[in-house]
């Protein structure tokens, strides 16, 4: 019993030293943490911590000139450009090229460039968001964010020639760069109504393979000879070509 009492007494004497030692360590750690917080540089609007998307989306990937498409965002000579027109051509011995019209994202200035189809370019990543088309007034298109129901007004020019396919409740996408919408896209397949169609000529042995039809959005496209006014057909918005009956 006396031995047990002696061990308890010795242990009780060591407790203050134990707590003092560990308390000192904790105080030292807290002091270092506070100093680190005071000396750490504050996050600014241009830092990666403050705007991670803006920082990462500027890291592009290599693409060939032959892959350049309308709406692409590319980096060239230290500037960021959006492709607003693209036309492929072949110049004999000179090889195939693509002539593009570019718009400077920051200044809005436009310029024309010609790339070789095998020329390496740097494409910049963009963020894509989905919206619902509501209506159009003049050159302004009103869209709605499907989850928050917030409305957004953008220029019809963002959709280019595809703006002709915009319809009520259509799901569309906007491509963003640095928080600004740069371009818009519509579904790849859209159903349209034929309002006018060239009549079939009877008595001829050779019927034309395709004929011109006028759609309800004002576009004129080629369709098979059996398509008549009033029918609904599916059109590829990429090249305005007939795909099938709806």
Automatic annotation (TrEMBL):
Residues 190-245 form the Elongation factor P C-terminal domain. Keywords: Cytoplasm, Elongation factor, Protein biosynthesis. Its main location: cytoplasm. GO terms for biological process: peptide biosynthetic process. The keyword Protein biosynthesis applies. One of its GO terms (cellular component) is cytoplasm. GO terms for molecular function: translation elongation factor activity. CDD domains: S1_EF-P_repeat_1. It is found in: Cytoplasm. Pathway: Protein biosynthesis; polypeptide chain elongation. SMART domains: EFP (SM01185), Elong-fact-P_C (SM00841). Residues 128-182 form the Translation elongation factor P/YeiP central domain. InterPro entries: Elong-fact-P_C, NA-bd_OB-fold, Rib_uL2_dom2, Transl_elong_fac_P/YeiP, Transl_elong_KOW-like, Transl_elong_P/YeiP_cen, Transl_elongation_fac_P, Translation_prot_SH3-like_sf. Belongs to the elongation factor P family. NCBIfam families: efp, PRK00529.1. This is Elongation factor P. It comes from Sorghum bicolor.
